[in-house]
Specification:
By secondary structure, this protein is mainly beta. It contains no helices and 20 strands. The strands form four sheets. Strands 2, 3, 4, 6, 7, 8, 10 and 11 form an eight-stranded antiparallel sheet that branches. A six-stranded antiparallel sheet has the order 1-18-15-20-13-12, with no helix packed on it.
């Protein structure tokens, strides 16, 4: 197991961690949380070398993907950086990348009654005005997923996450009560935690909340 105690805060700067080989040649991973070696709950940064591919497979409890760079592909199309997916249980595909890509992947974490397949190009989707700006990606029960865009110098006052929160910083830099976090940092705040957020630079972050109880 790796980081499966959801009552503990975890911060990982993925720029400082090593790549680990996957079972498929040309596909590499930086594990962030993992239940078992090749099955169950997993959160990872995954890199496809140019031309790398997986054979056809499904994910019994779903798959959630954010394309961070390059182009991710499967039988349904070619998807550039900024594409957000939710592939529900029963969806089957053989993913690959011709030019190579980097993706944030969450496996086997869907709620039992969440069966929607989602594919959003965040490059063309409309953001909601505010401070920070928000681009909603998914909501089911208490679980919400969104991109947040912080202007440099902006601040989010102290707030609580009753059912926990995950954050991946795509670009820029944020600080909170506990530290400073650059692009490539993954943070998991446990249920009941609270913090304020300050943007040291223009910053975009992926946020998932309400899912850790």
């Amino acid at each position: 197991m790796l980081n499966m105690d959801f009552s503990r805060r975890v911060v990982i700067d993925t720029g400082q961690t090593d790549w680990v080989k996957s079972p498929k040649a040309g596909v590499w991973r930086k594990p962030l949380a993992r239940e078992e070696a090749e099955r169950g709950h997993a959160t990872s940064i995954v890199r496809y070398d140019a031309g790398a591919r997986f054979s056809s497979h499904d994910h019994p409890l779903g798959e959630e993907i954010l394309v961070l760079s390059g182009t991710f592909s499967d039988e349904t199309g070619d998807f550039p950086a900024g594409t957000y997916f939710r592939n529900p249980p029963g969806f089957r595909h053989a993913p690959f990348s011709e030019p190579g890509c980097l993706i944030l992947v969450k496996l086997h974490q869907f709620q039992p009654d969440d069966s929607a397949r989602i594919c959003i190009d965040t490059n063309t989707a409309a953001w909601r005005p505010g401070s920070p700006e928000m681009l909603p990606l998914h909501q089911h029960g208490t679980e919400t997923v969104a991109l947040l865009r912080f202007a440099a110098g902006s601040r989010v006052p102290n707030h609580q996450h009753k059912a926990g929160e995950e954050m991946y910083i795509i670009s820029g830099r944020l600080t909170d009560d506990a530290g400073s976090y650059s692009a490539g940092t993954w943070i998991r705040n446990p249920p009941g935690s609270a913090h304020s957020i300050n943007a040291e630079e223009d910053t975009v972050a992926w946020i998932k909340a309400g899912h850790l109880q």
